Amino acid sequence: MGKKTDSAREVRLVSLLEDSVRTELQVTNCMLELGLSDATIERLMEGVTSGLLYAFEVDWSPDWVKPGQVHAWEEGGAHFARCSGCLRDSPPADSRASAEDWARQHETLH
Question: Which DSSP string corresponds to 43-107?
Fold first, then answer.
């Protein structure tokens, strides 16, 4: 993935990696009271992400998702799930089961 990304999945993977790195930097910034600006956090995120993508083969594979399950979560009262194939997130759903059903059905399209 250190090369130019071209598939929708690769683009989504980079986005998820950037989000994860950004979140870790924001948490560290708050916990250690570093006082980093949002712009500085963005620049650090870009540098760290670029270095990871250049030096390592990166894929989305959270260890909390057991075989046969999908990654699902609740955010702002809505439920979401992620297709393991293309990494697309479900639309907001009223229940976790509905979001998971969407992800499983969507995965069959690949």
Answer: HHHHHHHHHHHHHS------TTS-TT--EEEEETTEEEEE-TTT-PBPPPBSSHHHHHHHHHHHH
Q: What is the pLDDT of residues 5-59, one digit of tens each?
A: 469 999 999 999 999 999 999 999 999 999 999 999 999 999 999 999 999 999 9
Question: How does 30-55 read in b/e, with b if 16+ C-beta sit within 10 Å?
Answer: eeeeeebeeeebeebbeebbeebbee
Asked if residues 82 and 91 have their Cβ atoms less than 8 Å apart, the reply is no
> Which tokens go with 20?
């994860």
Torsion angle in degrees (nearest 10) through CA of 21, 23, 27, 29 = 60
**Model-level pTM greater than 0.90?**
no
- Residue position matching structure tokens 């989504």: 12
Residue type, 62: P
Distance CA 98, CA 96 (A): 5
* 31 Cβ contact partners less than 8 Å away, ≥ 6 residues apart: none
